[in-house]
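LOG
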Amino acid sequence: MDVHALVLCGGGRRSDPWHDLAATGHAVALVLAEQGVHTRLSSRPADVMAPLDTDLLVVNCSDGEGPTEGDVDGPTVDAAIGAHVAAGRPILALHSAALAFPDAPGWARVLGARWVHGRSMHPELGRATVRTLPSPITDTLADVEVTDERYCFLEPVTDLGAVVPHVEHRHEGVTHPLAWARTVGPAGSRVVYDALGHDVRSYASPTRRALLAAELGWLLESAGSVPRRRT
């Protein structure tokens, strides 16, 4: 199967001072290459345009909380991602993607949850073991040992119902989802949100890379089944 992926690595407002999105995007591209996926990385905001000419969209973006020259506005983002979903194509969203596109309300509905400033948080970055749960993605995986941030108190989009995690962690006695999979839209577009991946130390972990490979495997079962538009 000839599958193409676009990895969006921030750019313009879609970056922030805390994440090296180009470096983590490159780490993701290496895992994609191991799966035989043709991958293009981009930090050009204009690449978030309709139609997205790719089988798999990987969102490794954030939010700089302000307009930036050359950026793409929220309605354009919503239209591009909405068309991708309507075509039944899969999406992988990573770590700070929960902060991305706050001016595009459709994005949180695709993801299933969002980061809320003043409520969402993470304990200090450090070494941790996070628990994998039974699912079609993680049935053969061990728990993940990783140096990373562990997001807490993400706000679910309430009318979509609770997300069903395949990875979780505990912080101060409360369990928080760290990764989940869902299908979106009438065409059943597959979506995975994986909150790990703060920096390249995350991708140095063999168990973290195994989790990412398993998530990609589930997404790629549907990638390539819908012809891409060629211009």
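LOG (cont.) second protein
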Amino acid sequence: MARAGYAVFDSDMHCVEPPELWERYIEPGYQARAPRSSEFAFRNALVYMELEQRLMPWFDPRGPDGRRLPAVLPSPQVRAAVRQAVEQRPEARALEAFQQSRFADFSRRGWSAQTQLEAMEAEGVDMTVVFPTSGLLALAVDELEPGFAAAVARAYNNWLYDYVKHAPRKLLGAAMVSPFSVEDAVREAHRAVKELGFRALFLRPNPVCGRQWYDPIYDPLWEACTELGVPVVFHEGVGSHLPQAGSQFGSNIFLRHVACHSMEMMYATMAFCGGGVLARHPTLKVGFFEGNCGWVPWLLHRMDEHWEIQLGVSHKQLPEPPSHYFRRQCVVSVEADEDFVTHVVEHLGSADNIVFSTDWPHPDSRYPRAIERFLQIPLPESARRKILWENCARFYGVGDSSGER
């Protein structure tokens, strides 16, 4: 279904997982600890999770009186009270009204795979890779017990397999893997790709257990991705019990959300391009999604400048400037109204490292006019075709990368 003559591969659409997903899909031994979202979050496609007696909503958990609510919730009664307090906050009610004004029918029908296919048809998207909503928080508590964390990831992937099988040529899966045990992550990567047919792995960009992504402990996972021929994608979600940019703003969701997505993508880019991961793994593909793209020229310039004067790193340790590794192995997503993508293309010298995202059905999505809005940006037709189809098809290993249907 070409939109204005362009085939469109959306690098990053979202499913909206039912609150009881993990209770239904997790192995019996972990059922009592299963993560759970809320009906409010599910109805409104908002990121929210209750995990290991901790609450992770979009909003800093404060009550109507402004007092901060406890981070650890020791009983179902306390969890229910805190959840209610969070959902009554003005920010939550405003987002509910906004989401229901756009997505009431999809919400009423339970955010099924069929509703996503209908949204793709309305927007003009031919193919997409599916990322989670509440699942972005499903492993976002530091020091999770590794066996439990791996079971959480397996449960999500099994549910996602049942979701995408409704249209396997249009809906492709991105597997959740647990960073709490690299061995478990490697095992699940092989299962997700070889048995479930998924096209990517995804991780939060936040450091886990105090380790940076360039720590050699993760090398077996990057080697597995290379062997399997799939990329690793970093995708942030506001709310976390992991270290996160923007957390210093506390209950100010405006500033927290402005900060976390783009800044965490920058940190992850630094780890991979400047921390030596891509130098050690020259065929590994890495994506940095839903964090905008305008920061790319500045960050590459700053890293290259520090590399040039060997400030804390020698050319023997990192043979090429960080921008070399970004251009060779990375993509970053652009959303519909990022007019400054023209400057990114100009700085990089091509559009080869940029993929398109609608971010459906989250509040900052421009659905159902995301593609229409993107096509207003003054880019050459060749760049549009690369961004809307060719780069994404190459990144995810989908056969036809002509950009025409």
